[in-house]
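Board notes (copied after class):
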Amino acid sequence: MSCVSEQVDATGLQCPMPLLKTKLALKALPDGAELTVYATDAGSARDIPRYLEQTPHELLHHEEDRDGRFVFLIRTRAG
């Protein structure tokens, strides 16, 4: 079984757009898929992990890369 992997590029978008794009992408993905989100809005570093704490989805990794982008790796989980 292959893992579905998708990306959301929210670089350059201001709050709340990175979070909204993340929510929409998560709804469209099957259970167990991986979503990578790229964002430059500093609020994303707080908003996306806080949102995920209220969902069954799993934040596998997050970091700020060399280009100043916030990168989130999320695994979808059915609620």
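Comment from the instructor: The helical segments are 17-28, 44-53. The mean pLDDT is 95.
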